Amino acid sequence: MGDKVRIADFSEIKSGKTTDIYFVRTEEILRTLGVHKRVTVEITASSFPEGWPWAVATGIYDALSVLEGRPVDVEAVEEGTVIRPGDPVMQITGDYVEFGILETAILGYICQQSGVATKSARCRKAAGNKTIISFGARRMHPALAPVIDRNAYIGGCDGVSVVLSAELLGLKPMGTMPHALIIILGDVAQAIKRFDEIIDASVPRVALVDTFCDEKSESLTAAEAIGKRLAAVRLDTPGSRRGNMLKILEEVRWELDLRGYRDVKILVSGGIDEQTILELNPVADGYGVGTAISNARTIDFALDIVEMEGVPITKRGKKSGRKQILRCEQCFNTVVVPWSYSESDLACPCGGKRTELLRPMMESGKIIHAPKTPVQARDYVLRQLDYLSL
Ligand code: PCP
Fold first, then answer.
1. Which residues line ligand 1 (CB under 6 A)?
2. pLDDT confidence band for 4 (50 / 70 / 90)
3. Separation of CA 386 from chain center
């Protein structure tokens, strides 16, 4: 049996083993020359994938956890903070040779997780208060399932389907039934009846209605099989049969309502993203989103020196100097100012008061700011979404 393909463990990441070699050589050169420059670096993204106007910054505490114990000071935005292109999400100050090697890991944590959280938030914004369940773990390396689902949840999903992910989030896993159950038991009526007889009564009875026949007839079969205990039907219609999905949903809705099953909800999964959500919202009550969130585009954050020995300095294409982000609590207007900004910058033209988004998070390698829980981070995202459009 060949070697099991293994993932890096946290001690390897924290020790700098998952770094790019040129950081190892840079440290070797500087240490050999005895060069110890106190620098401030900032982490920003100059643009977001697919032209997204905003993004949700996550992975902040994972980045802090690899820096823990190193002689650095860090200020960063809270987990779940909505940012714009160019907004610094983290600033690290210290002797470059003490932390430079961790750039790859720090960016890796923030880039991928923020991409997932942002795509989830975009789906949330599109769906309003309709149910969204994260179904995407099967599209990614299973070791990442809890990470993906945590960010899908923080971004706004109402639940996740993976057992371990839900456990770590303190949630009940959410799911319906796979096509396999219907194929093995013969049809949707058998599947939903047995599900109803065997599965704990607290689990909503959701029938998958696209396996063998038309979604309308399978929905009615499921409703007639268990009556009022049927909570919803899920349409995971294969691409080859997805002519006009909204029309299909309208027909299913009509036929269910005609026969008194007005309380039976309609869930849709398979190829769902914020665009399809907007198209199906007139009828759909909820969505199972997989690939779009779990395989979300990563956000290309970069880490750059902006100050050295207290003097602003940076590369072309960047703004030098340590910075602060000020956001109006009233109108959400956001500005980036120099770290030593003037009091007057706290007054927003709308009359509101601006507050600082970059908070001291680490002093001399010690984390000094408690992380938000996933529920708190999710609530924070939902509050900010009220100010935003897609
Ligand atoms: C998949 C499963 C997931 C869906 C699709 C995620 O369906 O039900 O919920 O789709 P996405 O990645 O395109 O968003 P199947 O594998 O066809 O169905 P099942 O395992 O439920 O039988």
1. 135-136, 139, 178-180, 236, 269-272, 288-292
2. confident
3. 17
